[in-house]
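PROTEIN–LIGAND DATA SHEET

This sheet pairs a single protein chain with one bound small molecule, coproporphyrinogen III, given as SMILES. Inputs appear in the order they were entered. The predicted three-dimensional arrangement of chain and ligand is reported afterwards as a token string under its own label.
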Amino acid sequence: MAKRRLIRVLEGERLTPPPLWLMRQAGRYLPEYRATREKAGNFLALCYNPELAAEVTLQPIRRFGFDAAILFSDILVIPDALGRSLRFVEGEGPRLEPLAVDEVERLDPSRAEAHLEPVIEAVRRIRSELPKETALIGFCGAPWTVATYMIAGRGTPDQAPTRLFAYREPERMDALLALLADMSADYLLRQLRAGADCVQIFESWGGVLGEAAFRRFAIQPTRRIVQRLRAAAPDARIIGFAKGAGAMLETYRAETGVDAVGLDWTVPGEIGRRLQAQGAVQGNLDPLRLVAGGRALEEGVDQVLADFGGGPLIFNLGHGITPDAPIAHVEALVRRVRDFKG
Ligand SMILES: Cc1c2[nH]c(c1CCC(=O)O)Cc1[nH]c(c(CCC(=O)O)c1C)Cc1[nH]c(c(CCC(=O)O)c1C)Cc1[nH]c(c(C)c1CCC(=O)O)C2
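PREDICTION REPORTED AS:
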């Protein structure tokens, strides 16, 4: 079978128009998503229901014909599989049992494999139902980002509790991140074997770290995942999205070994093009331009294409789509990207 367009770009090819998908493309901005979530009961129940998780994964593909689907799940199923009593509070976000310093040694990953089986079953179903030209992206959170939710027990604006934990107990932090890295590598490998074409590692909170801490707590555990994956699946294609890490992205790509880097919308064209000389980039439209629509959207799309359309590019947002994005604006984005002649 011919290689899917997204994979060709991950292998360094430039395609015109570039392959296109949107982070969080299955979500609350779609009425059919809200209806399916309702049917499942709540967000987490949806994540563990293979039939309904497959359904919401496919919804944006049917509507917009994106080049890739992303498995519908959440990065926090890993701490959930460790028994950290995850729940999602409507309108507020995730809540977990905050992880105390002396609990790190007691974390037990032995139930994770069985716990995550419904997600793997969803991957199988999605692959069997997707159009053959559409790539399927698996994912996990990067260990540092997952740890920020485990330690604080919720999202925080600056990850102060986790930075303090890391500075006071660096060896324990290393141990926690290594455990999460090994669980995540096993989990990604299962996704790839179940039919994912490639995987993305979401480092949403790398931008709160200084250089030395970024190397130790973000790059090292991500490199551990990449190395374990490559040892077991040499052709695995891996996208690393380290939001807010602009000035560290070249080091991040070189030292983690990911194939492509995701750019958030603050990464300047010149920096992104330098990265593109080493391999594909993905991004980086500000999600709020999609909410605004009109000229703000057109100018934003054109800028991404002007900045990166000359090399291997996966068109995407610079972070997830927001619930207030109008569907008509997503349609306008798709038309404009697909009209690009390079
Ligand atoms: C940090 C993070 C999380 N989850 C994720 C990240 C990394 C990316 C990022 O920075 O956004 C990743 C994620 N979360 C979700 C996906 C599904 C795939 C996709 O369509 O991209 C992916 C890839 C579904 C989701 N994950 C969540 C929703 C909304 C839940 C709902 O339906 O109410 C969805 C569709 C919930 C979630 N999950 C998380 C938070 C902080 C929240 C609450 C914020 C919010 O409500 O938007 C943790």
